[in-house]
Amino acid sequence: MREKILVFDTTLRDGEQSPGASLNVQEKVEIARQLEKLGVDIIEAGFPASSPLQFEAVQKIGAESGAVVAALARAVEQDITRAWQSLREARKPRIHTFISTSDIHITGKFGSSRYGTSLKEKRATILNMAVNAVTFARSLAGDIEFSAEDAGRTDPVYLAEIIEAVIEAGASTVNIPDTTGYTWPSEFGKKIRDLKTRVGNIEKAIISVHCHNDLGLAVANSLSALEQGARQVECSINGIGERAGNASLEEIVMALKVRSDLHNFETGIITEEIYNTSRMVSSFTGIIIQPNKAIVGDNAFSHESGIHQDGMLKNRETYEVMTPQSVGVPETSIVLGRHSGKHGLASRLLSLGYILQDKELETIYRRFVDIADKKKEVYDDDLRVMMGDELSRPASVYELDYLHINSGTASIPTATVRITHNQRTFEESATGDGPVDACFRAIERALGIESMVSSYSVRSTTAGRQALGEALVRIRDRNVSFNGRGISTDIIEASAKAYLQALSLSRTYFETDNTTETIDNGV
Ligand SMILES: CC(=O)SCCNC(=O)CCNC(=O)[C@H](O)C(C)(C)COP(=O)(O)OP(=O)(O)OC[C@H]1O[C@@H](n2cnc3c(N)ncnc32)[C@H](O)[C@@H]1OP(=O)(O)O
Ligand SMILES: CC(C)C(=O)C(=O)O
Ligand SMILES: [Mg+2]
User: Fold this and answer.
1) Could you report the predicted ipTM of this complex, rounded to two decimals?
2) Where Mn(2+) is bound, by residue (predicted)?
3) Do domains 302-391 and 399-520 have the same CATH topology?
4) For ligand 1, is residue 107 a contact (CB within 6 Å)?
5) Ligand 2 midpoint to CA 115 (Å)
6) Would you kindly state where each structural domain of the chain is located, as residue ranges?
7) CATH 1.10.238 corresponds to the domain 302-391
8) Whole-model pTM above 0.90?
9) Nearest protein CA to atom 29 of ligand 1, as residue
């Protein structure tokens, strides 16, 4: 039998304290519904004393949620009363009260002489405030959580004293926050182990942890605490929260699930709901998820380099420690880019319906590398355009070997082209009304022909700033029309290729003495 770890989600309270994130009541209610679907045990819905909106959100969430709904309150009667008022209709209410216990907080935040003059007196006042708050909260509700704010930097003897006292006063959950994300995993784990030995009545309460990520250690600290006896973990979706955020729910849950060989814990989280929840929180809060964020980032299940793609295609376990489906991501993505190899390309082309022989793959791969060098990512649409172009290439071709354009607002557009045809090279330069005109003139001069262009257009065929441009050039040669198409991320290059393709078609046509009126490459 595995031991249950309670997942306390604070996305709607600490998460909402993230700079820039603020949610309206309806958004909070929607997120709470999704959190329930995700299977969290406790939803911390807000801090009711802080505003009417917070109050209303806690009230609404409490009334409809089947999970325990917690409301935060300072260790003062006024806040606790507000928290309880907001939870009155709740099916499973929890009052969560807190006060700082570290010397730096006690002296820094409670400096006024009304808390005492010496540190000893102030500590005693804080302990009394904590006990009074829990006693008062307990007179209102049955489920009380107490948090010793900045426990990570609190003297262990004083921390044990205060924890013992609040349990005695009726706290059923005692939370040990690393409020400033200062501790190390081994140090934080020891703090929890210490409490288990120092606090006489610790078995009467559940030990909870609440870790912040200032040093990027929030998840590691939480896991270390679980190993040492904590049984509730406080976390947020996407790790949002004050400053660098809280421990991320998805990382803790998946670390426990993927490495279940290392411990005897389980959570009630339906991990397949993680991705949906993450996207909802990101969209409602406006806090974007960094692409390399573990579990839910766009790149978490994307593979770009050839060696990795090859490994993944042979056996996905070579580079994935969990399936994307296990967290609700539809599928692994093989991102085609400049690091991709032939295996990755062939597999994607196959999924698009193109079955290539080895030789064809060699040719298409060379074109792919050429495009991938210019674009960050090669999309399916880019491949379709590339394949369409490749499959319609005429037999006899003028190849664009080199193109240089000099153009700007204060200079005459000049183009230099080098063209190869049947192992011969033709090179020329020309000026023109614009860079495309200059380029066409240079081609004509290099091949010793008159202008034959009867129509020209250019458009973008794929999305984004690095989209592939497609140029269409129609020429009329001896009363026959030929349509050429060129693609490139550079529209001048696409135009030159289109013109050369039309010229190639014309040459092929007259060499084989056809009679058709319009020859094109399938566009
Ligand atoms: C680590 C955490 O995440 S703590 C939770 C943080 N969340 C919030 O602060 C929620 C949003 N906050 C608010 O809406 C407001 O700050 C309120 C309503 C809570 C209080 O507002 P104000 O009365 O204007 O006080 P203000 O925020 O300026 O200062 C906090 C006061 O609470 C005191 N205080 C701070 N924490 C506690 C506590 N846990 N218990 C008792 N008193 C506390 C401070 O010492 C200060 O009191 P002082 O005026 O005697 O110096
Ligand atoms: C209120 C407490 C639990 C908190 O958010 C913290 O200490 O970080
Ligand atoms: Mg916090």
Assistant:
1) 0.98
2) 14, 210, 212, 246
3) no
4) no
5) 21
6) 3-285, 302-391, 399-520
7) yes
8) no
9) 109
